[in-house]
Amino acid sequence: MISVVIIGSGNVAQHLISAFAKSDTVEVIQVFSRTVDTSIKNIDSSKIISAFYQLKAADLYIISVTDKAIAEVSAQIPFENQLVVHTSGSVAISALNSKNRRGVFYPLQTFTKNKPVDFGEIPICLEAENEKDYQLLETVGKSISDKIFPINSEQRKALHVAAVFVCNFVNHLYEIGNEICKENEIPFEILQPLIQETAAKIMTLSPTEAQTGPAKRNDTQTINTHLNFLSNETQKEIYKILTKSIIDNGKKL
Amino acid sequence: MISVVIIGSGNVAQHLISAFAKSDTVEVIQVFSRTVDTSIKNIDSSKIISAFYQLKAADLYIISVTDKAIAEVSAQIPFENQLVVHTSGSVAISALNSKNRRGVFYPLQTFTKNKPVDFGEIPICLEAENEKDYQLLETVGKSISDKIFPINSEQRKALHVAAVFVCNFVNHLYEIGNEICKENEIPFEILQPLIQETAAKIMTLSPTEAQTGPAKRNDTQTINTHLNFLSNETQKEIYKILTKSIIDNGKKL
Question: pTM value?
């Protein structure tokens, strides 16, 4: 068994703990939580610690805390030359304290508390400083997911930006759609099939092939009708810049 | 059987023809196509006409042409006091020529040529000028979909704007994600599970509950890292306005 210590108890940490609980090759031997958090699931409460000196020797330390805390937390690990990774999409491998061997174990998914996810489908992006450490991370990754990708720090930065566009920003557009529906007494469920189909389409078509709508058709009459309809200035700005971007992309083709 | 004539041969028209072909209560007796288009599927080619004088009497005429052409096409129908509807999300019922009884039959979905859709799940938004016509539209709608909603012209305008946000604009964000991946030699498939999960989440959570990411956390360090990373000015503008909008929404809660 590969022994793993998880440092952190947020969404990503909790989802990792639950995924490893089903693994035959990886055992989570400790979870570090600043405030001993008894709501952590799928781990025996005796394994939850709240002081760094309590940390046991392990094959791998996974730091899953807020981005800002990664450097400091990695400095507090009372060992040297151990394999220590973080799970962040936006922090370079170099942020980890150099007294240990460093790596990244970044599951690219949106995790919501209490909403289970199928970890097997989640791509895990790995980085390590040497081949042996990479192989250990690969074994750990494969124990919970079928999709393992080597991604270096520069690529991971790009990937995280791309993920903000296709996840966080997309969800915000859902939120705007919901607001417009509410203001006009329209059930949001009318939009659900459209939302699901829009996501499903790009499983088989490229986003460029899948693009439809007034901006794609350069239908200025409809675009102006929509801009006149929108009274919220921010929504209007978002409508304008995205429409312009779609029209500009069309010209490039 | 309710007899229907479809005027138009674009994506929406083709999907309606295919859906009605499986219906037991509705029969498409003619399809009008300006240029006789033999690529139209699920209709006998003898039923395809290209001149308005060839139009037969029918219970319902469905005009499925570009928004701009709706008024003119409706004026050319050589009948009076028939039920004539259009399928547009962004055109008022009043755009139809008043010599006939008017209505709207708006399937809210994104249709892509040659990609089949399950019509049973597609919401159809109906509007008519009198109860009897509404009932006929409801019967026709129910023959192909389980989701029928009465939506007046003002609501439909709102709905169409909302649909642009949650479909066209969302797809464009997928396109930007794809571009960022390409530029950094990252396979776009890494983002697929994230995209599917982001859409799936709002089947059970409201978009506001589902929101995650640096803007939601007001994580200015990550936001600035991303803005420095983006070299495309339009992408940078989109990032800024959507981030601002998410932060502003957070303040309202």
Answer: 0.81
